Amino acid sequence: MAKITKIYTRTGDDGSTALGAGRRVPKSSPRVAAYGTVDELNSQIGVALAHRLHPELVKVLTVVQNELFHLGADLCILEEDKKRSPGPKVEQRHIDALEVVLDRMTAELGPLENFILPGGGAGAAHLHLARTICRRAERQLVALTAEEPIGEHAVRYLNRLSDALFVMARYENKQRGRQDVYWDSRA
Predict the structure, then answer these.
(1) Which CATH code is given to the segment(s) 25-177?
(2) Distance (Å, rounded) from C-alpha 164 to C-alpha 88?
(3) CB 167 within 8 Å of CB 105
(4) Is 56 helix (H, G, I), strand (E, B) or coil?
């Protein structure tokens, strides 16, 4: 467990930041942008949770928030540094757990008969926003993999999580008696 005694260090005043194993990189690096977006996603899930989501979603999303910290920890350590500085990471078991949630909630919702627009209730709308942030983080990770290696499960985890957030938004609407907002392709 990290013990933080002082919030500011002044070491980043030059536009650099330290990765988990101590190596300094520019704050504008694709890796820092990727785990910064994962942090943004986690914050957006916190906003959704603050809107008193259905208890089943609270249970699932509390776990997801911890897993996103695992992902951030995984991303802030270069693959070449992980042997001497191992840390938490997302694993296949996290992806499997998301698939169980997806299957269970999708079965309860039934088939999707039309594209839907983000909305419905406030909680569902915030989950849709989390989904779009998740997709951005996924795109950033894919771009990062073109430059350097990352944890083997990172991209798949975000891909599955974005699907889960979509289903969770629909689930929240259904549990609250709210209709999904259907796309009118003729409008």
Answers:
(1) 1.20.1200.10
(2) 22
(3) yes
(4) helix
Question: What is the bridge-based pairing of β-strands 116-117 and 181-182?
Answer: antiparallel
Residue whose tokens read 């699907």? 163
Q: What is the pLDDT of residues 23-45, one digit of tens each?
A: 887 777 999 999 999 999 999 99
pLDDT in tens, 139-152: 999 999 999 999 99
Question: DSSP 3-state assignment of 181?
Answer: strand
Of the given ranges (143-147, 156-160, 183-187), which has the lowest mean pLDDT?
183-187
Average pLDDT over residues 119-125: 95
Rounded-to-integer distance, Cα 2 and Cα 16, Å: 21
SS3 78: coil
The alpha carbons of the chain give a radius of gyration, in whole angstroms, of 18
d(CA 85, CA 69): 16
The answer to whether the CB of 33 falls within 8 A of the CB of 75 is no
State pTM to two decimals: 0.92
Backbone φ/ψ region at 52: left (φ over 0), alpha (ψ -120 to 50), beta = left
CA distance 167 to 149: 30
Task: Name the residue with tokens 């499960």.
Answer: 153
